[in-house]
Amino acid sequence: MHRRRPQLAALAAFAALMLWASAAAAQALVLSNLVVDNQAGNLTARFGVAVEGLAEISDSLHSGVTLALNCKARLTKPGGMLRSTQVATAEMVSRLKYDALTREYVLNLPGREAPLKNAHLDDLLREGWGALALDMGSWRLLERGQEYALGLDIRLQQTDIPNWFRRTLFFWTWDVAPQASYQLTFKY
What we know:
Elements: H1 4-23, E1 28-39, E2 42-52, H2 54-62, E3 67-77, E4 85-99, E5 104-108, E6 116-118, H3 121-129, E7 132-138, E8 147-158, H4 163-168, E9 175-187
Antiparallel strand pairs: 1-2, 2-7, 3-4, 3-8, 4-5, 5-6, 8-9
């Protein structure tokens, strides 16, 4: 009898996770204001991210899920018929969770020592993810008269999945919203 309890608990957790995953399918990541600029001699990709379907995300956070917003940027110089040359890359991860003791959402941003906290999820995400910046290196990487392409991939995924479970369901995506990819082409 005692052997069946862990199996039943694992089965119940799996069923809850599947129900949560199907409810989470309504979310979408929306990019705003993607620009490349010179910030004190550094090449910086600036953008904002909004999330559609906040009610489902809030429910997930209240049930103890931790989410991570992953942003990866790559700057390439098109090579015509040859392959494009990668000029720079940058990546950031921001974690979002709910603190049941304080009844606040907590958002950790890279480069910021203290996390942002707010009882209202929409206000917190607007403040934290509404204006993000990725430092991509020195502005001197760019050559005058050349064309460049900035590619940005963003994804929101669940982070607290045990490794054994990830390996068991290797075909399953843990993204809360479908990955979104954007590209900005410009000439310097």
